[in-house]
Amino acid sequence: MSPWLRPRWLVGHVLVGVVAVVFLRLGWWQWQHARQGNTLSYGYALQWPLFAAFGVFFWVKVVRERLSHADVRRQGGRPQAAVPSLGHSWRFERSDPDGAAPARMTPAAVTQTDAQDPQVAAYEDMLRWLNDDPRRHVSDYPGFQDR
């Protein structure tokens, strides 16, 4: 069975199809009014088919994305991020095993490119300083200047 024809997707297909047909019908209705002398209706007659096309386009894009993510998960991998990564990720870690202390975010890995950029390094240093004590504020960071 095609993934596009699974029962959970059929409701969405029908709904998008009905809405697209209604939008096209509204465009035709506006076109008839425009031909009777209502010039403002020409604009609406062009807009309704565009709304229908956008809805169908968006639905196809959503279904394809969901199905591709499901395929990647089925193969045991992680889906690609839509936004390119900055080269590092963050993870939560607890300093004590009992969980009494709050979890802290720490960098999991930093690329060589990030380590060479002094602005990125200074920003990450400030984040580490803030993460060491939850009571600290950005304005308390040494070298912080109000702008």
Written description of the protein model:
There is one protein chain. The mean pLDDT is 77. The chain folds into 2 domains: 3-74; 89-140, no CATH class. Helices cover 57% and strands 7% of the residues. It has helices at residues 7-35, 40-74, 112-116, 118-132, and strands at 89-93, 104-109. The chain has 4 helices and 2 strands; from the N terminus they run ααββαα. The protein has a two-stranded antiparallel ribbon. The protein has 147 residues and is mostly helical. The protein is elongated. Helix 1 (7-35) packs antiparallel against helix 2.
Brief synopsis:
With 147 residues, the protein is mostly helical. The protein contains four helices and two strands. It has two domains: 3-74; 89-140, no CATH class.
Number of strands: 2
Shape: elongated
Low-confidence stretches: none
Main sheet: which strands, in order across? Answer: 1-2
Q: What is the helix/strand order?
A: HHEEHH
- The total number of structural domains is 2
Helix content: 55-70%
Organism: Micromonospora aurantiaca (nom. illeg.)
Protein name: DNA-binding transcriptional regulator of glucitol operon
Keywords: Membrane, Transmembrane, Transmembrane helix
Transmembrane segments: 9-29, 41-60
